[in-house]
Design goal:
It contains seven helices and two strands; from the N terminus they run ααααααββα. The chain has a two-stranded antiparallel ribbon with strand order 1-2.
């Protein structure tokens, strides 16, 4: 193993950084840069991915607001990556800048790819949802178009032709009530003695002219005549 392993030999380089940190004869403590820088970078990246999810997938944030927040978090991420790289490269500034550029470029490409995938999946989901609603609407229209399919017949008749239950029929019954009629008014009779016409019930059953009592047969005739 060489005394100065390359950047991509992660295991050997990490061991070198740890040994350098605990070697009092060597200047600097690279872990004080590497660990906090890595944590800041990871936290910022996690927030950026979460904002991309809310913006391009959930739609809870507008694109302007979501992109603005991601741009605000970008310097924290870049700064964290630089601190990590500076400690990882043991204070070699050119190598630290190169590693920072590589990591940031890869991350930016990953975020763009994630955003495009989220937008694509969201567009596919919306398209399938609209297609499903359109199919449901067409099915409802076909099912509700009984007039056209039944050649102008009403919908219950069309269903009855397919063996569906016979629609409920309304039966109207006519109710005849007998209203009692009032008895006919008494009719006038003619007195057999003086020939005067009068109504027995109105004259106390006596002729008003001669005072003769009305015969029973005349009283019955007056009461029963229409």
């Amino acid at each position: 193993m060489s005394s100065n392993p390359g950047t991509l030999r992660v295991r050997a380089r990490t061991r070198q950084v740890v040994d350098h940190h605990y070697d009092d004869d060597k200047p600097g403590k690279p872990l004080y840069l590497l660990i906090p820088g890595g944590l800041v970078a990871l936290a910022s990246l996690a927030l950026i991915i979460y904002l991309a999810y809310l913006t391009f997938w959930q739609g809870d944030l507008s694109q302007n607001k979501g992109l603005t927040l991601m741009v605000i978090l970008a310097p924290f991420y870049i700064g964290g990556v630089f601190l990590f790289s500076y400690g990882y490269e043991l204070y070699d500034l050119p190598k630290a800048l190169r590693l920072t550029a590589i990591v940031v470029f890869i991350t930016l490409a990953s975020v763009v790819i994630i955003a495009v995938l989220l937008l694509t999946l969201g567009a596919i989901g919306d398209r399938e949802s609209r297609s499903s609603r359109s199919s449901t609407s067409d099915s409802s229209s076909s099912g509700g178009g009984g007039r056209g399919m039944g050649f102008g017949l009403p919908w219950p008749i069309f269903l009855g032709g397919l063996g569906s239950p016979t629609p409920t029929q309304t039966v109207t019954r006519e109710v005849i009530r007998e209203v009692p009629t009032a008895p006919p008014p008494p009719q006038p009779v003619t007195c057999p003695y003086c020939g005067t016409a009068y109504v027995p019930a109105q004259t106390n059953f006596a002729c008003p002219n001669c005072g003769a009592a009305a015969p029973n047969d005349l009283i019955a005739t007056s009461a029963s005549s229409p």
